UniProtKB/TrEMBL annotation:
The keyword Endoplasmic reticulum does not apply. This is Riboflavin biosynthesis protein PYRR, chloroplastic. It comes from Salix udensis. It catalyses: 2,5-diamino-6-hydroxy-4-(5-phosphoribosylamino)-pyrimidine + H2O = 2,5,6-triamino-4-hydroxypyrimidine + D-ribose 5-phosphate; 5-amino-6-(5-phospho-D-ribosylamino)uracil + H2O = 5,6-diaminouracil + D-ribose 5-phosphate; 5-amino-6-(5-phospho-D-ribitylamino)uracil + NADP(+) = 5-amino-6-(5-phospho-D-ribosylamino)uracil + NADPH + H(+). Keywords: Chloroplast, Glycosidase, Hydrolase, Multifunctional enzyme, NADP, Oxidoreductase, Plastid, Transit peptide. GO terms for biological process: carbohydrate derivative metabolic process; riboflavin biosynthetic process. Transmembrane segments: none annotated. Its EC number is 1.1.1.193.
Amino acid sequence: MVLFLGTKSYFYSSPVLCKSIASNSNHNLAAHSLDAVYIKRAADIADSSAGFTSPHPNFGCVIATPSGTVAGEGYLYAQGTKAAEVLAVEAAGGFSKGSTAYLNMEPGDCHGDHSAVSALVQAGIKRVVVGIRHPLQHLHGNAIRSLRGQGLQVDVVGEDLKSKIMEEARKSCLLVNAPLIHRATSRVPFSVIKYAMTLDGKIATSSGHAAWISSKESRNRVFELRGRSDAIIVGGNTVRKDNPRLTARHGGGHTPIRIVMTQTFNLPEEANLWDISDVSTIVVTQRGARRSLQKLLASKGVEVVEFDILNPREVMEYFHDRGYLSILWECGGTLAASAISSGLIHKVFAFVAPKIIGGKNAPSPVGELGMVEMSQALDLIDVCFEQVGPDMLISGFLQPVPDLVPVIPSEDETFAIDPSITPYDSKIIFFYKTWDPYGAFSNFSPHPIQMPDGSGSYVTWSSVEHYYQAHKFVGVNEPVAKDCVEKIKSAKSPEEAARMGRSMQKQRPDLVRSDWEGLKIDVMYRALKCKFSIYPHLQSMLLTTAGSVLVEASPHDLFWGGGREGEGLNYLGRLLMLIRSEFLGECPSPSESTCTAL
C-alpha cells in the first residue's frame, strides 16, 4: 500500500448533526488543528542540520504547555549526537511537566540507546504525539510501547488522530524522512536526479558546450542539494567532457562523496575528481576494466570498486550496504535513462532556463526509455513550481513515498507469532550505522565516556570516535597538533570528529604520533571497554550476543570493518567480542579499566 500524497480525507460531514455532537466535533477540530501545527513544526526543525552533516534519520521535538505555548524545541544534529527529545526537554526545563511533546517520528536514532524515552518520562511529559512510527523494522513501535508502558498518553497520527488536517501533518513527517523510508522499504538509497535544460529541452549545444545553461541562483540551489546528499553520481562521459569538481562549495560542513560510474573505465588520467584532498572519489566499474588505469587512480587515493555486472541497481544496492541514505544523480541522458528505467530515481529537480538553443543533435536530459505512446509517459507526483532567479524549478516525485502500513513485524512481534524464532538466534550479527540493529555497538554511538588524561584527572569525550581520532595527535609537541586535539574534542558530532582527524592525518602525516599504528587498537579497546562498563544497558545488550560473531559491516573499511565480501580484518567486531568475553569471565582483561562513571 502506498500513500499518494494529496489523498482524500476519510472523514465526511453529515447533513444531520445534533448539537452535542457538533460541539464535540468543533472541539476535536480545534485540538487537531493545534496538534497539526506542532507536528508540522517538529517535521520542519527535524531538517535543520541538512547540509552541515551527512544525511541521517531526521528527528524533531516540540514541547508545548497545556496553554499551547512552545516551551522547548530540539532536533538531532547528526549521527551520534544528543536526541531531539533530550534537547527539547533541556530547553523547556520545568515547563516540561504536564506538557505535550510532538515528535515527527517515533524515537530511535540509535538502536540500544533509550535516552529519548527516558528524557520524556523523567521530565514529566504527560502526552506524546507521534507523526509516524519508525520505519526501520528493529525500531518500529519500540519507543511507543515503552512510553505507553510508563503511563504516558501516546497518540499516533493516522492511527489515534485521523482527520484531513492531521493527514497533511503526517505527509510532512513522511517527506522529511523520505530517504529513510525508501531505504527501509526498497533497500536502495533515496535517489534524486537533477538537471538544467533550456526551454527547448537541451542540456548542451550540439558541440557539447553547457556552461552555463542555468543562472547563478539555480547553481546555488544545486549546491544545497549536494549538501543534502551522501554522494553525487556522474557517468564517465560527464568526467571526460565537463571535468567537474562536484563540490558543495559552502565553506564547511558536510561534503558528499563523488561517484563515477563507468563500464569501460574510459577515463582521463588527469581530472578534477582525482583530487581527493578535500573529499573522496569512488569509481565503480566492470571487473577487469583497464587495470593499469585503475592502478594509477588508486595511487592517487581514488577508490575503485569492481562489479561482475555493472548496472545502476547493483551499484545502488552496494551503496545502501555502505550506509548511504540519499544520492544525487548529476549524470548525462544515457545514465539517467538507465537509472530511471531501473526504477531507482525517486525525485526529479529540473531547472528550466528561459533560453532556446535548438540543434538536432543537442543532448536532452534523459536518453531513450523505449516509450512509443504518450500513455507510457511517467507522471510526477506532488509537483512544485518555483522561480529561482530567471529560471523555473520544477520538482516532483517519480515514485510516491511508501506508506508505513503494513509493516514487517518487529522481532518482538515475530517472537509472539512464532516462539521458535528468537531475536538473538543469529550466529553472525552485523552492525554499522547507529540506527541499524545493534547500532549502539558503533564507535559513533551517542554515549559519552570519561577517560584519564595522564595527569590523574578525567576528561569527558562525547563519543568513542572523538577519543580515538584525538589520540592520533595526543603527545605530539606541536601547536597545530595540540590545537587539533582540542578541536576534535569539541566537535559537535562523531562525524565531524572523524572528518577532522582523518583530514589532518592525510594533510599532515608528520603530526600523527609515531607509535600510532601499533597503538590504535589499544586506544579503541580502552574507549570501547569504558563505554560498555559505564552503561549497564549497553553491557546487557552486548552479553545477549554471546555465541554470535560480531561484524562491523562497513564494506570499505578493511581494518575496522568486515569489508564488502568478508575480506576486512573486522578489528572493531573482534574488540567487542573480546570485551564480551571479559564480561563473561571467559578471558582476563588485557588491562585494567581506565574509565569512570559519568
